[in-house]
Known about the structure:
Order of helices and strands: HH
Helix content: over 70%
Oligomer: single chain
Number of helices: 2
Structural class: mainly alpha
Strand content: under 5%
Shape: elongated
Amino acid sequence: MARGNQREKAREKNLKAQAGQKSKNGMSGTEFAKAKEDTAAIMRAKQAAAEARKAEGGASKKK
Length: 63
């Protein structure tokens, strides 16, 4: 009956590993939409800054 104990130990180990894994997405639909909009706003600001630098000749680059 050692086989049953081995199976039980493997099951416990697997459950522990699954509990430690991060879930894909814990946000609700509205939270996800807000996060997406915030990210888009940041990217639009970066793009505008890059275009402004490009328009003035690209002399002042931020490092």
